[in-house]
Amino acid sequence: MYPSRFGYEAPKTVEEAIAILDAHGGEAKILAGGQSLVPMMKLRFASPEMLVDLNTIAGLDFHRVDADGSIHIGALCRHEDLEKSEVIKKSQPTIAAAASLVADPIVRARGTFVGSVCHADPQGDWAAALTALGGHIVAQGPKGTRDIAMKDFVIGPFQNTLAFNEIAIEAVIPAPKGIARGGYLKLERRVGDFATASVAVSLDMVGDTVARAGIALAGVGGRTIDATAAASVLNGKKLTAENISLAAAAVAAAAEPRTDHRGSADYKRQIVKTFVERILTGLATPSQKAA
Amino acid sequence: MALDEIKIGGLGASRRRVEDNRFIRGKGNYVDDIVLPGMLHMELLRSPVAHARIKSIDVSAAWEVPGVRLVLTGEMMAARNLAWMPTLSYDTQAVLATDKVRFQGQEVAAVIADDPYIAKDACQRIVVEYEQLPAIVNPLQAMAAGAEVIRDDKENQEGNKVFDWEIGDKSATDKAFADADVISKMECHYPRSHPSPMETCGSIADYNRATGKLTVYMTSQAPHIVRAAVAMVAELPEHMIRIVSPDLGGGFGNKVPIYPGYVVSILASILLECPVKWIEDKTGNLISTGFGRDVYLQGELALRKDGKILGMRMKTISDHGAFYADAQPSKFKIGLMHSTFAAYDIPAAHLFSTGYYTNKAPGGVAYRCSFRVTEAMFFQERMIHGAANDLGMDQAEFRRMNLVKDDMFPYRTAFGFLTDSGQYGKCLDIGMKAIGYDTFQAEKAEARKRGKLLGLGISTMTEPLGAGNSREYDILGIKMFDSAELRIHMSGKGILRTGAMNQGQGHQTTWAQIVAHELGIPAEDITVEEGDTDTAPFGMGTYASRSTPVAGAAVAMVARKVRAKARKIAAHLLEVSEEDIEWELGRFYVRSNKERGVTIQDCAMAAYSNLPDGMEPGLENNAYYDPPNLTWPFAAYFVKVEVDPETGVWDVLKVVAVDDCGVRINPMVVEGQIMGGLTEAYAMSSMQYQTYDEEGNCIGSNYMDYLLPTAWETPGFELYEVVTPCPHHPIGAKGVGECATVAGPAAFVNAVVDAVGHTGVRNIDMPMMPNRVYEALQTGKDISGMPPVKMGD
Ligand SMILES: Cc1cc2nc3c(=O)[nH]c(=O)nc-3n(C[C@H](O)[C@H](O)[C@H](O)COP(=O)(O)OP(=O)(O)OC[C@H]3O[C@@H](n4cnc5c(N)ncnc54)[C@H](O)[C@@H]3O)c2cc1C
């Protein structure tokens, strides 16, 4: 691999990293797992002047559930950490379902959840999952930290709203209003492939009733599609077959797929619809289905 | 007292591959591992557009980058008469573009620098002004009236046609169709794919002004052909050219042609008088080097009501890219396409083929295939599938009825090939039992209740391997024989060299096994060496499954020559006349007294120390083998799939492969070849292809778009064997490197088409991606994969 010439810094603290970013005025890039940035440098689609490696900063590789039920994922938490996490398996079904569908085992060993969200690939799985969950990013810059809600974070293909001298230090999934249920389905042509279409579903359930429905999509638009408004037809309702198909139709309508070598726009919409139906039907209890 | 052949690693021993020892330890020696003193590095600038006139090239900024030693353009190549080079199909190909670029990725300029980073930096600074022309990405566009002439460099080239070619008996075929009760038609596209070896192409050219000798280390499956071609292009005599192919990281046909990068690195080394290394990157390999397939197939079968096939008519329209650079025997324009239906008893057949230039990479290499045999057999089995359905006959029974029967050999096919042996019916029986043919319909009905669609596909074929006899097969006029040279040292160990070139087939392991079989010398005592034209005997290289049929035969023959001399030495040592000597594995003995004997090792020592008067010392020889005929392995493959009608996703439930490749030298290596081939067959049918958009951009230029299956999705394979020895090959082998890539894809497609057959769909072009299967189910119509691929809202 023959990228353009670049400098490399391995700071020991977040503050030091921010100072380096600041000094390079937009020409520096953060290196997390390197699973998106390094391939782009190889192809010379990206030619940063300076790489600021987060991997030498201690204390960013965490993920935990706080007492209030919110989940915090540090900037160096790898896809694989989430895939193997007992905490996630117990408390966050959407993340648990998606974890083994992101990339392949080799990439999962290096790539980070936060890096993936920052990368803002329209086909990225984690940005979709975090959007469905109504999560936010905690950004730290020279002036301190701020929270950026997912709906304000990803604004276009490969575009986020971080300032050049800000680092996403963690991603936060808010505590569910009730019991967290959810699922993730992805159509890929092969293991390690990006999504032709994928659907992230998050439901906060109070008894048999949906308190909050969040749905987001990857691969079917110029950016991560937040279909939460479409999913809101489920709010306050039960998961009956009728409600499920209403939601599936609304979410499919919210997708903005394009025809390409992976299939026609209609086909991708059909996949979205089918996946929404399948996830919701899988989450419905027998009594809900009967209703 | 004869040796146990399996113990000494002879025929039939599943000996572990000798070469793997170094490969799995990272001790292989590939071109890129070679570092020569003072070596410079070369990078190519490639065209970003598919079709454009070059208005200007400005290289001045590239020269300014520190560490740049040379910048070459087409104009500079032209000044040395090297802007164009001959292809293996008697066409010409641009080395560096002068007038126009004709495909995306075409070589436009080269930078030679102190390291590859600098070379790449400097390439980015070359400014090329292009005046874009419409891109032609399929033969329909190429043949359209008023289409831009791609090859305006060629005198007398009107339009974009490359050739018309036909074979067979047209009037007999027409009559068969006139007599038919039913005519069954089929149309499909075998998509463009790329062999994509793990190691890309590359070379290190090292011209030594003092000796006048040019040494080139390169990734070639056929180093001797390269030497001949370089001698022609560079106007150097052969003894001043040494081509060395070290370990190859796969080839699959991709490393047969001569590429511009090789030629430019050679010229650079001559101009700079230092070694110049060029290692292509993965994208360069995928978008510019030899592809496989890309043929549109149309055919008809004339059928009698009872199922008998009376005649076959077929038309192919092939897309050759910007230069006709197929690697194939000279006599044929579309390879051995006419081997189609060789396994079937068909009285009359006719094939008409047309080839077109397009704005795509040149190639048409035999990608794990004996020259277009893959397309031929694929289409045959798709036609058979359609015909059985049109007649309302069972797929297996329709095949059984029309396959050549055991007692019909030698059998002359309608296109003139002579097949010589096989037990086709037996292979079919084994496969049907293993796949559970009898219970399949019940299974299918049960799956239907779960909302799933099951399908079962069969593919049977015999393919011509081992090109070939010198009457018919040559490349650039050189006959397609092969060779072996065997030298036995005084200790009874030895070194074998052949004109073939291993690239994963396991020659180091299996050639030694043939020697062990012929001489009784343990396989581990034989070193095998290939790839260096200064030391290896002249041979045509390894592709088209020709190693075992041709070079492997030469190995057996040279071992027999050595044995014949050893026999004379044995007679001398045993003090009897040669006629009184008998041979058993590893030992000569006196016929009248079996106890009195000498081993082959005794004879080897005597060849250097105790010879009969007048005998030339040493124990060595060489053999050039001109095969009397092609060899014809047979395969019967069965695939069972389950389709999800809501998404078009299909899963493979079971794959059964029955192979008859004649005598198996090393059963483990044979099974490895079959599994590798089946994986590629699955790949072709499900995901692996290259397509193009309207502007001629290649979709499939990296591994995120050009999909190779991983261990995760590749199904398991159940393998079965039948052995019908080849009657004319010295050890009865038929070759097996490509059977599964050739016969496999149709089994997968037939299975999926069977699953959706109730909708009336006859064909889904490969790769059968879920969206295509879904669309077929929705529309009940055939799905075409012809580029350009649709893009938009
Ligand atoms: C073969 C392959 C297959 C893949 N398949 C998939 C797939 O199926 N689904 C999928 O979602 N992804 C896939 N990916 C992408 C993978 O998930 C990446 O790991 C991920 O997108 C980026 O995470 P990273 O830690 O590697 O980030 P990096 O590559 O290090 O960085 C990516 C970008 O984000 C920025 N960045 C990283 N961390 C931060 C931070 N803390 N603050 C601010 N900016 C930051 C970087 O500067 C860079 O611009 C695949 C990658 C490969 C190589």
Question: What would your notes on this structure say?
Answer:
The complex is a heterodimer of chains A (291) and B (793). Chain A folds into three domains: 7-54, Uridine Diphospho-n-acetylenolpyruvylglucosamine Reductase, domain 2 (2-Layer Sandwich), CATH 3.30.43; 63-173, Uridine Diphospho-n-acetylenolpyruvylglucosamine Reductase, domain 3 (2-Layer Sandwich), CATH 3.30.465.10; 179-286, CO dehydrogenase flavoprotein, C-terminal domain (Enolase-like, domain 1), CATH 3.30.390.50. Chain A contains 13 helices and 14 strands. Chain A has helices at residues 14-23, 37-42, 79-83, 86-91, 93-99, 105-110, 113-119, 125-132, 150-153, 228-231, 241-254, 265-283, 286-290; strands spanning 7-9, 28-31, 50-53, 63-65, 71-74, 136-141, 144-149, 154-156, 159-160, 167-173, 179-187, 197-206, 209-218, 225-226. In chain A, the strands form four sheets. Chain A has a five-stranded antiparallel β-sheet with strand order 4-5-10-6-7. In chain A, strands 11-12-13-14 form a four-stranded antiparallel β-sheet, sandwiched between helices. A three-stranded parallel β-sheet of chain A has the order 1-3-2, with helices on one face. In chain A, a hairpin with a 5-residue loop joins β4 (63-65) and β5. Chain A starts with 6 loop residues before the first strand and ends with a helix. In chain B, α14 (507-519) packs parallel to α15 (547-574) and α15 crosses α16 (600-609). The longest helix of chain B has 28 residues, at 547-574. Chain B folds into three domains: 20-27 and 481-625, Aldehyde Oxidoreductase, domain 4 (2-Layer Sandwich), CATH 3.30.365.10; 34-133 and 200-248 and 255-288, Alpha-Beta Complex (Aldehyde Oxidoreductase, domain 3), CATH 3.90.1170.50; 292-467 and 629-779, Aldehyde oxidase/xanthine dehydrogenase, molybdopterin binding domain (Aldehyde Oxidoreductase, domain 4), CATH 3.30.365. Chain B starts with 19 loop residues before the first helix and ends in a 14-residue tail after the last helix. The interface between A and B is medium-sized, with 26 and 34 residues. Flavin-adenine dinucleotide binds at residues 29-37, 39, 54, 75, 102-103, 107, 111-112, 114-116, 118-119, 121, 124-126, 162, 167-168, 192, 194 of chain A.
